[in-house]
Specification:
Largest sheet: 5 strands, antiparallel
Number of strands: 8
Number of helices: 4
Strand order of the largest sheet: 2-3-4-5-6
Structural class: alpha+beta
Helix content: 25-40%
Oligomer: single chain
Amino acid sequence: MLEGVIDAENFESGWQHSSSYSGVALSDKTCNASATGFLMDGRILVERAQLIAQQHRITYDTPIDMISLVKDIANLKQAYTQFGGARPFGVSILFGGVDDNGDGGEPKLFLTDPTGIFFEFKATVIGENEPEIREILEKEYNVDLGVKGTMKLGVYLKQKGYPSLAKMLRR
């Protein structure tokens, strides 16, 4: 997992192998994505994000910056809201990663919604029980937690009874 970005859903349960969960996918070595909604749409968009990231790496020999990747996916999602005869993508995607500017990188967290709008967060949640978990995050999360503190908060939320948690936190 990327330093500074924690995906609490990536904890393996006793009956499900973590590699079979289709909502979490690696877009690039510097970026992860978690989807909620129609996961078949999420898979298509994450694969597109992988392609965009790979093309950027081959063309420029550097990883793509998070904002460029998120804008490309958000623009595609927005375009599908305007095409006649095309169904919009019914998925929200949370992109978490590190923009490496040679100084170790800065963690970034972006949420795209089905309309193509995107937002940057320090910590957020998507998926089941979102309002309850967001309330806990607003009370418990702060930027000084660091990676270990953030992981503890993720485990706490998981133990509190949110087994289908699909969230990422930025330190």
